[in-house]
Amino acid sequence: MNDIITLDYESGGEKTADLIRSVLLPAFKNPALEALGDGAVLDGSEKLVFSTDSFVVTPWRFPGGDIGALSVCGTVNDLCMAGGIPRYLSLSFILEEGFLIRDLETIAASIARKAAEAGVIIATGDTKVVERSKGDGIYINTAGIGFLRAPGLGREQIREGDGVILSGSAGCHGAAVLMARAGTIRLMRDPTRGGVATTLHEFIEDSPLTIELDEAAIPIDEPVAAACDLLGLDPLYCACEGRMLAVAAPEDEAAVLAALRRTPGGEQAALIGRVTQSRPGSLILNTRLGGKRLLTKLTGQQLPRIC
Amino acid sequence: MNDIITLDYESGGEKTADLIRSVLLPAFKNPALEALGDGAVLDGSEKLVFSTDSFVVTPWRFPGGDIGALSVCGTVNDLCMAGGIPRYLSLSFILEEGFLIRDLETIAASIARKAAEAGVIIATGDTKVVERSKGDGIYINTAGIGFLRAPGLGREQIREGDGVILSGSAGCHGAAVLMARAGTIRLMRDPTRGGVATTLHEFIEDSPLTIELDEAAIPIDEPVAAACDLLGLDPLYCACEGRMLAVAAPEDEAAVLAALRRTPGGEQAALIGRVTQSRPGSLILNTRLGGKRLLTKLTGQQLPRIC
Predict the structure, then answer these.
(1) Partner residue facing A92 (CB), from B49, B141, B189
(2) Domain assignment of residue B48, yes or no
(3) Which member of A62, B59, B164, B263 has the greatest number of CB atoms within 10 A?
(4) Reported pTM
């Protein structure tokens, strides 16, 4: 078989079948996929959670992972944030002519590994090939189905007095812990695009509520702080993986923090702010120096493509 | 708001929110999407059908439709072919910097129209923007969830003596009719990539069965035949929209044909071949002139990107 993806792989004929059989199927061995039908037949549930994301990060490999791992984790996290237990993923590739098959194999293995860790099945998929300069190596889309576990989450649940918690625990570990026992959670969100500040803005958009953050309480990794300082970026607006924001009823804050601090990566979980009504729809930072800074919504680009 | 998609739309900040609110939400008004959460919470079912496809057709608008309509119909059809009633779609865009917002609005309207016709809800979505020459205007991915209606479909059901039927009825109309009452269907498939010949090859791949086609019985539209003739293409290998292949038990062929001929577009439904055991794994065309031609699997590219 050739080394690189060519436009021949696009037509649905022998080469595409080869690609599927020799690269993709072995990576994702499961009965749903092996039936090679137009659609996978799966066990269902009374209430479903459904989410999708496309991944266009470049380069495709970076310290700590690759686009394949990201494509599984991103969608799995979103299902958890919406109160679901992730069960199935669809997986679609858009490959640029010339992409190395060896790299596709690496990415497929990465996807398989993350899917196994998360307990999800890659149930169905698609591959398209586009001409040079009509793509960027590889783009991946995943859509995920989860079974609803924690109903009633949403920004409309947030009320004055609630606590805002930031945790470093990988999305689903944190979410699973919270859904299991920790008390009344209003919602959970992983602050990817636009960072913590943008996500918090989404929580109170067009509402009478305010979120006031305590700068001294916000845990920011030293390397992240240093890099942002160097680049002139504000860490509160940086897309961040592996973080979770949760809003909890005040009487349950302590229990939620304790539960999160017991999860891997969650040891630095902190109460970083509170919901008030001092200035409707605004996000306010109470600074270390005792001042107040209005954190506006992100209007331009902060960082290059990260997810 | 600006006329074109710029990389600012990528960051998750104000411009992205504008895009979602002013272009996308109005097109797809439904409660699941308006919650704007990480994942949509949906009613489920005991057994699900799950399918995905990416759409990279260029140009994005063509006689009879556009990439938006195609992205709905393609996935909706696949859910029907797998024996499901389509219920929910996810919708992901990868937009190239410079794409006209006016064109995105047209495509969004097209998607909304087709989704309404098909009775599916656009439940969740995503938008990514990439730099010039890293995309091609617009790529769309849809993933679909359906509720299983006709269990037990699959190529492993095909047996010697079965009839092969080709219908012009738009995939879901045909499939719905067959699932409702018409008798024993082994499987249904819409012959997109690689055409009728490639799809039939998939039915009997690595099996002891043969499919023998009767050239005189195959309905091919005159314009399609003329275009293929001109371009030196074989219509049996051309990707075709709006067609359906079904394999039926011989005692039910007549009922299946009758049912299909009553559906819109299905008037020319024809029995085009039979499953035998004359030459394992082969697709044979019994020609008008009384000869036999072996239809091999497609090895190269037949047509430019069509879906």
Answers:
(1) B141
(2) yes
(3) B164
(4) 0.83
